[in-house]
Amino acid sequence: MRRRVQDLRRVLEEEELYALLVTQAENRRYLTGFTGSAGTVLVTGQETLLATDFRYYEQVQEQAPHVDLVRVEDSTPSALAPHIDELDIHRLGFESHDMTVRGYERWQEALSGVEWEPTADVVEGLRMTKDAEEIGLIEE
Question: Of the four listed, 67, 78, 134, 140, which is most buried by Cβ atoms within 10 Å?
């Protein structure tokens, strides 16, 4: 999982993005190993945060010990906003194929001073290339 996140960080650097919000379930699982049905991953140059609600706190610790858990008590935007501010993120990519207009509006309400950059197929592009472990699992 760590190699996958490092690969994503290289893409973010090429795209001149400070960070990427990963909301699509398959991409979240690919990057973290977390299989829960609800969660948002924030990947920056140094940090990997997984925001989810109380139903999944233990599951995150078991499946994704390499990420930092952000506990969502109200909404994901309000839970991640202080981290985004603290990390001084000015340009934030998001999975445009997965975010609704209402979801986008909620994020904009929670954050100010952030340039939103719609992305497409960033993580999917990484998922297309299989490593030896993935190939072995496919062969089984």
Answer: 67
Given a contact cutoff of 8 angstroms between Cβ atoms, the answer to whether 10 and 110 are in contact is: no
For residue 18, give both structure tokens.
């400070």
3-state secondary structure of 53: coil
Task: Kindly give the confidence (pLDDT) of every residue in the chain, 140 residues in length, as a single tens digit, with 9 standing for 90 and above.
Answer: 789 999 999 999 998 888 999 999 999 999 999 999 999 999 999 999 999 999 999 999 999 999 999 999 999 999 999 999 999 999 999 999 999 999 999 999 999 889 999 999 999 888 888 777 777 777 88
Closest C-alpha to 120, from 91, 92, 98, 90: 98
Q: CA–CA distance from 9 to each of 45, 64, 112, 133 (Å)?
A: 6, 18, 24, 21
Q: Cα(109)–Cα(87) distance, rounded to whole angstroms?
A: 18
